[in-house]
Amino acid sequence: MNETLKTTLSNSTLSATISHNGAELTSLYSIVNKREYIWEGNPDYWGKHSPILFPIVGTLKNNSFAYDGKAYTLSRHGFARDMVFDLILATKTEAVFSLKSNIKTKELYPFDFELQLSYALKDSELVITYKVINKNPKTMYYSIGGHPAFALPESFENYSLQFEQDEKLISYQLENDLLSDRRTAIRLDENQLPLTYSLFEKDALIFKELKSKQIQILENGSSLLNFRFDDFPNFGIWTKANAPFICLEPWAGYSDVVNASGNIAEKEAIQNLAANTEKEYRFSIQIL
Question: How far apart (Å, rounded) are the C-alpha atoms in residues 204 and 26?
Answer without folding.
Answer: 22
